[in-house]
Amino acid sequence: MHEHLFPLLVAILIGLLGGLAVVLFRLLISAFADLFWGSSLAFAGLLRGQPWWRIILVPAVGGLLVGVIAHLLSREASGHGVPEVMAAIALHNGIIRARVAVVKAVTAAITLASGGSAGPEGPVIQIGAAIGSATGQYLKISRRRLRTFIGCGAAAGIAATFNAPIAGALFSAEVILSEFGVGQFSPIVISSVLATLVSRQCFGTGPVFAVPHYQLAHALELIPYALLGVACAFVSASFIRLMGFSEQFFDERKRVPPWLRPALGGLAVGLIGVLVPHVLSDGHHVIDLALLNRLAWWMLPLLLGLKIVATSLSLGSGGSGGVFSPALFMGAMTGAFVGKIMGSILGDLPAEVGSYALAGMGGLVAGTTHAPITAILIIFEITGNYTVILPIMTVAIISTLLARKLCPQTIYTIKLARQGIDLFRGQSLDLLRHVPVQRCIRTAFETVAPGSPAHDTLQRLLRSPHTQIYLSEPGGPCTGLVTLTDARRALAGHSSLGRVLLVDDIARTDTPRCASDESLSTALPKFARSGLPELPVVDASGKLIGVIHYSDVIQIYQDEIFRADTTGRMAAHVAEAQRANKVRVMEGFYLAEWDPPSSLWGRSLKDIRLPSQYGIHVVLVKSTRGGADAEVLPVVPGPDYVVSENDALIVYGREADIDRVLTL
Predict the structure, then answer these.
(1) Which domains does the chain have, with CATH numbers?
(2) What DSSP state is assigned to residue 117?
(3) CB-based contacts of 206: which residues, under 8 Å, 6+ apart?
(4) What are phi and psi of 594, to 5 degrees?
(5) CA nearest neighbour of 80 among 369, 319, 342
(6) CB 529: neighbour CB atoms within 10 A?
(7) CA–CA gap between residue 120 and residue 157 (Å, rounded)
(8) Which of 119, 289, 358, 663 is the most buried (most CB within 10 A)?
């Protein structure tokens, strides 16, 4: 099958499955709403007449069900879904278990139907991504193509939910994959379009929100919208930080079982819902009220603050749902509030409050995701109103720029950053991060027993090739060190004092120490802080086992630079090959980076027989087996080298053979 036709056909399948999954998910939410409340209507009228204790208990019971189901079947189903998809792409080569789609659909439907403050977008993104990953794993395609299929599933989910095919495709490319290559983007667009068609067949073609007509009369009107962009940035940063704090708070409650935490979050949300039921569930009905200017001014900041708290409690405790709808809610409240203030100052029409609310929705989405293009287009698509595109662009760009300064992490990456996962590690050039201290330990060093005369210690240092001596009893911990300079300075001009002073009196006791298993990347700043040419290396008990010299660390760093430069020429070819798939080496022969399909994982190069079966040779291996950062191995692997899912093979061969293997 043609190499470009195959992914497009699979994208059609993923788009159809993703669209059907969204339809079933929405029906599942309605079914659980009937179960919990006796009706599947919007929460605006649903809670009228409900006893107060039920409003408190139903979210708690829903949280308990979510916690138990996720704990027993799939813990990835907790939270808002998108960080888990991003982590799967970055750390697990796009491998997502198929059961995640089912468990996520059930847990998210329970959370939303029971009143949890969340949205359906994160779950449908994770469900779609799981469908894409499962499809790719079944077809045994390469890692790079698996990433594309995950992007197809994520785009299908967001497009079918909001009836927004353009925004769904851009969200997947801009946020999930962070790449816009034609080879990746084309299948994503197809999946997004197909999923939207499925959704429209079931739910119609109308916009998600009803927006009053608005016309930008004068360019100076953009000034108040610029102020709204600033406000959205501050609200976005506050939401991101509170969400991160809530997740960390619940994670640190070790005495509370993980399956019980969502129930506690649901209970807290229920208590808020008794007083202000508007913050429960996705809040789409309240957004409509803000767009139509039917909320009192004093309610807007109240709803904004409580929605931030309620969403952080629902999702931070382990509930299942998305943050997209809450961000739209917060943006509508922020925009409507700013619009009312501007109305009182400038005397605008009531309909213009709706335009501020709409622009605020785009500003919050952009500020929390740092994805302004997606924010601009999704607001346009879900409203079908092009007349407010200029204000939305103004607010979204200003909000994104300022929010990045206030909070570098997004609502999706802050959870990963707290877990030590850096999605943008490829932008770092820390060559010593995975070089252990053990590599440059010297075992020759001088020790002196505590309590020894300082004068005798100075004489030893003058006769020794070393410039530092360490205080340590035989077999005991290292308690300090004395440098030759320290000893000379302390005893200069005080020969009689040298007989009285002890080595303990002139020793440095606050010198940084290193462990043999830590990286040179963390050891290097210790040299800068101490100003010493060498540092002690101790074991877990504090016993001195060696020293490391600054000159040795610098030499290793230079070796690593040379090592990177040795493969740098090939890396430059590979960087080009990532765009063109292969690069010409000589007439008729090409070099390419190839992600081997899963059918080859766990097999040795000798068993795979690439030269005889495919006519290609492996000349280099890029592997992430040793850690999160890709490590280029500048050696030709032997026949017994076992291919791993973390490997990318640099292969060499004739053009036809290279083309054939890249389609596997």
Answers:
(1) 5-203 (1.10.3080.10), 219-259+277-418 (1.10.3080.10), 437-557 (3.10.580.10), 567-662 (3.30.70.1450)
(2) S
(3) 163
(4) -130, 125
(5) 319
(6) 10
(7) 10
(8) 358
pLDDT at 402 over 50: yes
How far is residue 645's CA from residue 632's CA, in Å, rounded to a whole number? 15
Task: State how far Cα 515 lies from the chain centre.
Answer: 30
Query: How many CB atoms neighbour CB 489 within 10 A?
Result: 10
Q: Can you point out the beta strands (E) in 501-615?
A: 514-515, 534-538, 544-549, 583-586, 589-594
Q: Which amino acid is at 396?
A: A
8 A C-beta contact, residue 410 and residue 244: no
The token duo for 329 is: 């809610």
Token pair recorded at residue 522? 């963390």
Closest CA to 547 of 523, 575, 522, 582: 523
Cβ neighbours for 77, distance < 8 A, ≥ 6 positions apart: 66, 69, 70, 100, 103, 104, 107, 108, 126, 320
DSSP strand pairing (631-633 vs 534-538): unpaired
Neighbours of 457 (CB within 10 A): 26
- Say how many residues make up the chain: 664
Q: Which two tokens stand for residue 48?
A: 């009228």
For residue range 242-285, what is the model confidence (pLDDT) as tens digits?
999 998 899 888 788 989 999 999 999 999 998 888 898 888 88
Q: How far is CA 608 from CA 587, 604, 643, in A?
A: 27, 6, 9
Pairwise CA distance, residues 72 & 139, whole Å: 28
Please choose, from the candidates 74, 418, 22, 359, the residue with its C-alpha nearest in 3D space to the C-alpha of residue 221: 359
**Residue 611 identity (one-letter amino acid):** P
Contacts (Cβ under 8 Å, ≥6 apart) of 388: 211, 214, 216, 355, 358, 359, 379
User: What digits encode the pLDDT tens for the residues 583-630?
Assistant: 766 677 778 888 887 778 888 888 888 887 888 888 778 765 544 444
**Is residue 495 exposed (0-12), middle (13-18) or buried (19+ Cβ within 10 Å)?**
exposed
Q: 376 vs 206, 338, 370, 373, 397, CA distance in Å?
A: 19, 19, 12, 5, 9
What is the percent of the chain with per-residue pLDDT over 90, rounded to a whole number?
28
Strand order in the sheet with 478-483: 446-448, 468-472, 478-483
Interacting residues of 9 by C-beta distance below 8 A, sequence separation 6+? 1
What does the pLDDT average to over 479-499?
Answer: 74
Question: The dihedral of CA 643, 648, 652, 655: what is its sign?
Answer: positive
DSSP state letters, 12-58: HHHHHHHHHHHHHHHHHHHHHHHHHHS--S-HHHHTTT--HHHHHHH
The DSSP 8-state label assigned to residue 587 in this structure reads T
Residue 423 near residue 408 (C-beta atoms within 8 A): no
Alpha-carbon Rg for the chain in angstroms: 30
pTM confidence score: 0.67
Virtual torsion, Cα 196, 198, 199, 201, nearest 10 deg:
120
The end-to-end CA distance of the chain, in Å, is 10
Q: Enter the tokens of residue 370.
A: 């740092």
DSSP assignment of 56-94 equals HHHHHHHHHHHHHHHHHH-GGGSB-SHHHHHHHHHHSTT
Is residue 548 a contact partner of residue 537, using CB atoms and an 8 Å limit? yes
Helix, strand, or coil here: 388?
coil
Two tokens at 280?
Answer: 């429960």
